[in-house]
Amino acid sequence: MTLPPWRIDRIVQGLAKGEVIAYPTEGVWGLGCLPDLEASVSRILAIKQRSWTEGLILVASKISHLERYLDGLSGKERRLLERTWPSPVTFLVPDNGHTPSWIKGDHDKVALRVSQHPVVADICKALGAPIVSTSANPTGCSPALTALQVRQYFGSKIDLLVPGNLSGLKGPSEIRDLETGEIIRSRPVR
């Protein structure tokens, strides 16, 4: 589902004002905001009842949106990202000093993904930048799989619920350490 231009404009304006959005991804609904707005990120963490120390994912529609976080990678690491993305694979990339603490949490790596989901792609393309992506659920609960579940979990705590559908994965994205290749969280089955 591609979003109409008027809706994309509304989402971008809301994000710029610090709004928190809920949106569909490949396998679960996500909560998002602009990563440089600490107050918005703090709202997401409060809504989820999640500690800042755990860190959050940044999702983009193309690698160029993530350049500031990729500076310093080896050619081999860079080629692996280019071969893998866009896909529902999140990589833990060494922090090069450009990641705010409220995004990376208590870690020396930042979680990054280039998504092929049309809603995520539309939003990030319009922004020319990544957004925060974390599953839409209170800590300890299953991630929301429908817009209705998002509303049941969060009600009016979300500023904007972006329409759309999941892409068919059965759960959150795979998480892989870029340096070691270790799979931290397995890819869900379609």
Detailed description of the structure:
With 190 residues, the chain is α/β, with parallel strands linked by helices. The chain has a single domain (5-185), classed as DHBP synthase (Alpha-Beta Complex). It contains 7 helices and 9 strands. The chain has helices spanning 5-16, 38-48, 67-70, 75-84, 101-104, 118-127, 147-154; strands spanning 21-24, 29-32, 57-60, 89-94, 109-114, 131-135, 160-161, 174-177, 183-185. It has a 9-stranded mixed β-sheet. Strand 8 and strand 9 (183-185) form a beta hairpin. The mean pLDDT is 95.
Secondary-structure topology with pairs:
Layout (H helix, E strand, L loop, with lengths): L4 H12 L4 E4 L4 E4 L5 H11 L8 E4 L6 H4 L4 H10 L4 E6 L6 H4 L4 E6 L3 H10 L3 E5 L11 H8 L5 E2 L12 E4 L5 E3 L5
Parallel strand pairs: 1-7, 3-5, 4-8
Antiparallel strand pairs: 1-2, 2-6, 3-6, 4-5, 8-9
Oligomer: single chain
For the biggest sheet, the summary is:
9 strands, mixed
Q: SSE order, as H and E?
A: HEEHEHHEHEHEHEEE
**Number of DSSP-assigned strands:** 9
Uncertain regions spanning at least 5 consecutive residues: none
The whole-number mean of residue pLDDT values reads 95
* End-to-end CA span: 19 Å
Write out the CATH superfamily name: DHBP synthase
Output the CATH class name: Alpha Beta
Q: What is the percent of helical residues?
A: 25-40%
Question: What brief labels describe this structure?
Answer:
190 residues; DHBP synthase; nine-stranded mixed beta sheet; 7 helices; 31% helix
Question: How would you briefly describe this protein structure?
Answer:
With 190 residues, this protein is an alpha/beta fold.
